[in-house]
Amino acid sequence: MKEEATIAPTNSIKMLRAMVGIGALCGLLIVLTYEGTLPRIERLRAEALQKAIFNVIPGISKTQAFVYQNNKFIPSDKKEADVIYAGYDDQGIFKGVAIPASGQGYADIISILYGYSPENQQVVGFYVLESKETPGLGDKIEKDPTFLNNFSSLDVALDKAKNVIMNKVTAVKRGAKTNAWEIDGITGATISSRAIGNIIENSTNKWVPIIYENRAVFKNKDNE
Fold first, then answer.
1. Which of 10, 20, 50, 114 has the most CB atoms less than 10 A away?
2. Virtual CA dihedral for 83, 62, 117, 138, nearest 10 degrees?
3. Which of 66, 57, 56 has the alpha carbon at shortest distance from 214?
4. Which residues touch 163 (CB under 8 Å, ≥6 apart)?
5. In sequence order, what are the residues at sequence separation of 6 or more whose Cβ sits closer than 8 angstroms to the Cβ of residue 194?
């Protein structure tokens, strides 16, 4: 009996050590895998962002990141929180800015990028950077032609004082759009399309007056 009592704890300790060892090895492998793939993930993410910038600002061939600090925009190559991207054509003429934005969708946070033209005072492009909306329904915000067409010339004009946007960006039911500042929604994906409207409304309210006021900063000095 004494011998059995001695063997049982010994086996348990061995099993415990084995489990701890396996757990530590798995944890190490996860860390090593993450560290090994992180540079590639960041590179692919940067490439996707660059592609999106060219998508949302028509007619550009090069870009420059700007960060908003101390009430002004300065060129930047860092990943700051308040970075926007100016786009230029082959002659270096400023065409617009790409602005990242995000907000709650139906399933999770939706991250987008949209283009803004200070000259036209319009949103001129739209791209979904990240979304977990329902396949076949909510994900139509990424590929529905009618919905995407909303963002080729969405009105975000400022008031006479250039302080606030005159008309609130609003998502409406499919086919109910009558004004240039309205977003024609998606049937069956009302929440997702309305979420995009809210994201753009909140973001343009913040950024459009600031960007318009500082639009000369983005222009190529050779073309001013």
1. 114
2. -70
3. 66
4. 209
5. 171, 185
CB of 224 closer than 8 Å to CB of 216? yes
Instruction: Quote the pLDDT of residue 15.
Output: 76
Q: What is the pTM of this model?
A: 0.79
CA torsion sign for 71, 55, 205, 164 is positive
Nearest of 103, 138, 143 to residue 127 by alpha carbon: 143
Under a CB-based contact definition with an 8 Å cutoff, are residues 63 and 86 in contact? Answer: yes
Where do the structural domains in the chain lie, given as residue ranges?
A: 57-223
Tell me the pLDDT tens digit for each residue of 134-187: 888 788 999 999 999 999 999 999 999 999 999 999 999 999 999 999 999 998
